[in-house]
Amino acid sequence: MLARLPGRLLQMIPTFILIGVVVFVLIRLLPGNPAAALLGIHATPEALARINAQLGFNRPIWVQFLLFVGRLLHGDLGISVSERIPVTEVIARRLPVTLALVVMAAAFALILALPLAFVAALRQNRASDVALRGVFQVGLSTPVFYIGLLMLGFLGAQLHWFPVGGIGSGFWSGLYHLILPALTLGVGLAAILMRSLRSTVIGVLRAEYVEFARAKGIAPWRVLTGHVLRNSLITTLALFGLNIGTLLGNTVIVENVFAVPGIGGLLVEAIFGRDYPVVQGVTLVLAVMVSIVFLLTDIAESWLDPRLNS
Amino acid sequence: MMHDNGGPLLSIRALRTTLATEGGRVTVVDGVDLDVQPGEILGLVGESGSGKSMTLRSILRLIRPPGQVTGQVLWRGRDLVPLREAEMRAIRGREIGMIFQEPMTALNPVLSVGAQILENLAAHTDLGRAARRARAVELLNLVGIPAPAQRVHDFPHQFSGGMRQRAMIAIALASNPTLLLADEPTTALDVTIQDQILKLLQHLRETLGMAVILVTHDLGVVAQSCDRVAVLYAGRVAEYGAVGPVFATPRHAYTLGLLRSVPDARHARQPLRPIAGAPPPPDTVGATCAFMPRCGFATAACAAGRPPLVPAAEGRLSACIHGDRLEATEWAA
Amino acid sequence: MSGAAPTLSEVPDEEVVPRRRRVKISVPLALGIVITLFFLVCAVAPGLIAPYDPLAFDYNNLQVGPRWTHLLGTDNFGRDVLSRIIWAAQVDIQIALFCTVPSLIIGTVIGALVGYYGGITDAIFGRLVDLVITFPFMVLVIAIVAVLGPGLNNVYIAVTAVSWVFYARLVRSEVMVLRQADFAAAGRVMGYSDMRIIFRHLLPNAMIAVVVYWMTDMALDILLGSSLGYLGLGAQPPTAEWGVLVSDGKNFMDTAWWMSVFPGMAIVLCGTGLSLLGDGVADLLAVKR
């Protein structure tokens, strides 16, 4: 596993370059002068000239790209139009909340999807399986903003079990504020995972090695944990990696619904504030997060599945 | 054959297994009677769908509900069919071991071979951790895997086909079963490797005094390694007896058909005479001889009822009412 | 002895249980068809079904709850929620079609060409697929909408810019398999042009998989379109769109919950109907996904 790590890290380089290209091109899709767009309301002729010289908007496009990459490598994402401070700082302030939210959401999704997939698979085509599949089929077609709004309205505003938004102050209060948004994201992701997981578990249950394990006279719970769960976990991880993009995309929406001050909410605020450097920066950070999670699930997968190591 | 004096180790009576399919219940094992003597190798031979694998799985009650097993499976005089799951688990792996056709799919790909032996030992023995590890290496050595101390840590995909089958045998033998159920253990292997695995099974039978039920569709395998043979057709036993006499003078028209359809080294350049038609789908056979539609000896009497499995000669049973007419036919003619 | 015994199959001994092939329409599929048809009718002729004018203010009935005169209640301007949901179906079905049909056409053509010719085009296409997979779909669409500006037309452009790749990837793999088939070789022997082989012979065979994907994709795009509408990046008020309706009502969740809850249900129902339809058709045609 560790032997493959340098190779996998090398493979990330073209991915990062691609991400850079997309983000670079994105801003150049803006109608008119990109410098004017980047400066927004602060666009005085002097400032325009300064930005043009500084960012090289009057140079050939490939020079502009190299300059852009050079600034990226120095962690320079430009200056936020609305806050007048470096974009990196704006994002760094907001990123921890999003990270906590995503980790909690992933945990909720796994806690929900894995046991329920097992129940559905073990009770295949019985009432409980059909009911679970029905619920998750509907869940799959429910937009996260709606799940969020219902939770907010019912568990928050109606029952007062949870705060109705924001992040509170302090670590524990912060976690408490994140429960509803994370649950919203988790339910959405669980619906996606559940669908494939159920058939994965059914496939594993039918595998001959499970039959062989039974023929050895091993206790059922040992067959379930030692063989079925162990082998299903590999697919679960792969599925999780495949859907991390959806999870992060949904984060943008859910942070908006619950007024969570993370980078997802920041993206929407920046769009309406025409703060293009921030839009660019958040897009970049989200894409980089996806590729890092890809890498992590990949490493975890090869740790769980010895076949991937040879 | 070796210890014929005592009672049979395993005695199956009227074994019947039904599975639930989309089209309703089907009977895949239809009243099978079999005896296995201690230390003998019994061949279970028949075409695909004849119920041989299902018979093995029914013995260990590996049939999942809504599949159903009825009849008697007397293991050392104790009927396994009514046992509770927990009681059954003490038999599985401990007293009766089982190996499968395709070790690549029957071994868990993400667990080392050693781990798969250890879980068997943990379930059935009181051995401590170190003793279990030592036993795992010993087992790999027993089945002829070179450098067992290193290979015990290897994963199934790191073994060759033949070695993988040996590893599976080692796992199945971990807790010293007295009977090994072998479900087509050589079908997936090259001919030379096939031969090595059969020799290994015979060797283990002799050194461990273990009986084997060897399921195969290969008559050559039966002739080479079995003491007795049971020929299965459509979930029923057609003929049962010692391999030599059964193959020399078959007393069931189906056995005769099978023998005629394989090349025989003794009679060079004989034309093969395959049996016309195909075996019936499960549960389409009524109260007649199941083989009747494909049989050249069939008469009206064959449709009169299901022919019982009755003594046909010394130590042999046959479910064919025309057994005597067959004897008059020189089978290779 | 393999092969020597004609009557002893070499097939592993799986007990062969014959299964009757069902050509009947399953319950989920029937449900999917009914739901989809219902929303199509709403979209085509909302005036015939909606009990009220969706834009008519009624200051005597502000935010009244569900009752016989207003089955799903009224909003803060006294507009009938049911009528607004029915009229909004027009916009959401439009989203489902306009987000997918251009992608389907562009993706199918490009995928067919890439799959047939392979080589350098295939290598370039591979990079493109990597890129699109790396970006969270929603984030990429939002970013493009951010640059182009909020509004439905820009949503269509943004979604098409990304999602044609998924259609192309699907068609490419289908065509690559079909290319090897006998009838493709036969076409070449007959001297047919590449274009004729691709579009007359290979593509029709690849289309089943595309159509099945298309149905589930429509369900996803309704979710995406309504999410963007909710954020204010998609349909712009006063256009009635389900996501916009939910957003309109979100500040009245404790006083007039019906304003948000019912439009949201419309999204769920329509999405469920389309995905049931897609899954059902896939099962019926035995398409593996």
Please outline what is shown here.
The complex is a heterotrimer of chains A (310), B (333) and C (289). Chain A has 310 residues and is mainly α.
Top keywords for this entry?
heterotrimer, A: 310 residues, mainly alpha, MetI-like fold, 2 domains, 12 helices, 0% strand, B: 333 residues, alpha/beta, eight-stranded mixed beta sheet, four-stranded antiparallel beta sheet, 32% helix, globular, disordered N terminus
User: How much of the residues of chain A is beta strand, in percent?
Assistant: under 5%
**Which class do the helix and strand fractions of chain A yield?**
mainly alpha
Multimeric state:
heterotrimer
- Taking all residues together, what is the mean pLDDT of chain B? 83
Helix content of chain B: 25-40%
Number of strands of chain B: 12
Largest sheet of chain A: none
- Report strand % of chain B: 15-25%
Alpha plus pi helix count of chain B: 12
Output the number of helix runs of chain A.
12
Low-confidence stretches of chain A: none
Describe this protein's structure.
The complex is a heterotrimer of chains A (310), B (333) and C (289). Chain A has 310 residues and is mostly helical. Chain A has helices at residues 5-28, 34-39, 45-55, 61-73, 87-122, 127-140, 144-158, 171-206, 208-215, 220-257, 263-272, 276-304. Chain A is built from twelve helices and no strands. In chain A, helix 9 packs across helix 10 (220-257) and helix 10 (220-257) packs antiparallel against helix 12 (276-304). Among the domains of chain B are: 110-171, no CATH class; 252-328, no CATH class. Helices cover 32% and strands 23% of the residues of chain B. Chain B has helices at residues 52-59, 85-91, 103-106, 113-124, 129-142, 148-151, 161-173, 191-208, 219-225, 243-248, 253-260, 323-328; strands at 10-21, 24-36, 41-45, 68-75, 78-79, 96-99, 179-183, 211-216, 228-233, 236-242, 310-313, 316-318. Chain B has an eight-stranded mixed beta sheet with strand order 6-7-8-3-9-10-12-11, with helices on both faces. The longest helix of chain B has 18 residues, at 191-208. Chain B is globular and about 65 Å long. The model of chain B is unreliable at 1-5 (pLDDT under 50). In chain C, helix 5 (137-148) crosses helix 6. Chains in contact: A-B, A-C, B-C.
